[in-house]
Specification:
Blueprint lengths: L3 E6 L6 H13 L2 E7 L10 H11 L6 E6 L3 H7 L4 E6 L2 H17 L4 E6 L9 H9 L10 H10 L2
Length: 159
């Protein structure tokens, strides 16, 4: 039976750190769904539709990766897609503490769903969407942190 994983996030915007996890996950799983969720505690720079388009362009060379948008709980989305694996990237110990809480809650809501943690490549361990947006806001070159399409979108947003 083919194994599908969901790689959820707000992806505002997608970075090379995210892509590292997605690409490596695509080598392990038969199919990876990159699912854009709206984090209510964040004020996004890009709309959900813009984020989805940027992800589609950034992953267009990965035939076993698809992109989607969801509202609500991740476990409900996973159930609707008949997926029982969540793929998450970790940068540091602080990420693990947060992810452990989320994973524990997901397990409480649906014990059939497993979370697969993958350490981000060391060169991206400092990278976050927030850091990228802050640098781009002040006209710094972020082209080595995000795909070209994202770098261009950031330039447009901060004109």
């Amino acid at each position: 039976m083919p194994k599908t994983a969901i790689c959820p996030g707000s992806f505002d915007p997608i970075t090379y750190g995210h892509l590292d996890i997605i690409r490596r996950g695509a080598k392990i799983f038969d199919h990876v769904i990159v699912a854009v969720f709206n984090n209510q505690s964040k004020s996004p720079l890009f709309s959900v539709e813009e984020r989805l388009e940027l992800i589609k362009e950034a992953t267009s060379d990965l035939p076993n990766v698809s992109c989607d948008v969801s509202q609500g709980l991740l476990v409900d989305y996973a159930k609707s897609k008949n997926v029982d694996v969540i793929l998450r990237g970790l940068r540091a110990v602080s990420d693990f503490e947060y992810e452990m809480q989320i994973t524990s809650m997901n397990r409480k809501l649906n014990e059939e769903i497993e979370t697969f943690f993958m350490m981000t490549n060391n060169q991206y361990s400092f990278l976050s969407s927030s850091i990228v947006k802050e640098a781009a806001k002040y006209k710094s070159d972020v082209s080595d942190l995000v795909p070209g399409v994202v770098a261009q979108a950031l330039i447009e947003k901060y004109k």
